[in-house]
Amino acid sequence: MPPAQPRPQPAPGSWWSDALADPWRDPDAQVVVVKTPADEPPALEKVPPPGPAPRAGLGLVLMVSIITALLAGALGGTLGYVFAGGGGGVLGGSTLGGNPPLNGRPPDTVAALAKKVLPSVVTISMRVGAGTSLGSGFVVSNDGYVITNNHVVQGGNGSATVRFTDASVAPASVVGSDDESDIAVLKIDTAGLPDDQLKPVEFGDSDRLQVGDPVVAVGAPLGLTSTVTYGVVSYLDRPIRTSEGGTARYYSAIQTDAAVNQGNSGGPLFDGAGRVVGINSVIGTLSEDQATAGNVGLAFAIPINHARRVAQDVINTGKARRTVMGVSPDPSYRNPAGGARLASVEANGPAAGGGLHAGDVILAVNGKPVEEFWDLTALIRKYAPGAVVEIQYLRGTTKEKTSVTLVADAK
């Protein structure tokens, strides 16, 4: 693996010149166009020096003259007809073509959707140490609550600034967050804001999404506020585990090909009706250096049903409930067929109540395959405490199924 290259520094005087190296906070990511060998033009053959140009034949000259005369005659006749007012031309007072209203877009278009949702999306900036964290968020209530990613505000002093799509700004404070689910809640100070400034989003149902559904991401990629990108859902319930600052984060993600980049973190993913179905949080990239990572058609969003539940817990109690099934997977277990082997099962816990034992290999949760040991945690976190899930597992060489009632952890 080649060593990481030193990161280019922002130009002096840039407003974000003191940004952190965190790629989700720092818009200072270069965009580089690389010329591949396949793009090289083919070598040109050597040709002999040009000799005297051959004279055009009489037939060719005559043909060109005839075509030119015909075109000129047609053009002249047309212009004469128009300027004479024939057929209601320009001099007749008619307008060529139609002039639909500039803002008139059918309600099912991306343009109409963007016009509807943009006022609900904000750009979030917060001082973190000697730098500035930059991300996105969206208004979820008339009294000013905003949902974003925890990694957008993590390490800050709790005070942030939100910028609306009309360029107005307002101070905000962090109400609370959950690092493992990567959800944070802010509260805007509404003093001095117009009564109609806050426009809460409409919530969709992420459980009803299907692969191929159209989605729109809105946020501030690379610091470019109020940016709209469009794509489709390319996979559902993709288990995601990320790690930052020693904290592991788990969720069962919505995968999309809508372009998402640094600065989109915490911004909303809308369905075709303009309802929030996810929170854009992670991108897939080929870059080994996160500072230069860019979208390659793989972005991952936290499902809104999960995020909304966590946010409501944070608002009501100051902390989130984490869903568990009372097991510890074995991180050393590897099998080409997938699965997560249980290293231990909590006595009298949900899994034990469903008949699971240490050594059982979990193959699927509600039909979603478990490929790695941490997939089990990510898939379980999707559900609320009290939900009943079907577990497919392997005991010895026998495949079996059981139902487990999930609970909240004791943290």
Automatic annotation (TrEMBL):
Gene3D superfamilies: 2.30.42.10, Trypsin-like serine proteases
Transmembrane segments: 58-84
Region feature (Disordered): 1-22
Record's keyword terms, sorted: Hydrolase, Membrane, Protease, Transmembrane, Transmembrane helix
InterPro entries: Chloro_Bact_Ser_Proteases, PDZ, PDZ_sf, Peptidase_S1_PA, Peptidase_S1_PA_chymotrypsin, Peptidase_S1C
Segments forming domain PDZ: 314-371
Biased composition (Pro residues): 1-11
Similarity field: Belongs to the peptidase S1C family.
Name of this protein: PDZ domain-containing protein
Protein source organism: Dactylosporangium maewongense
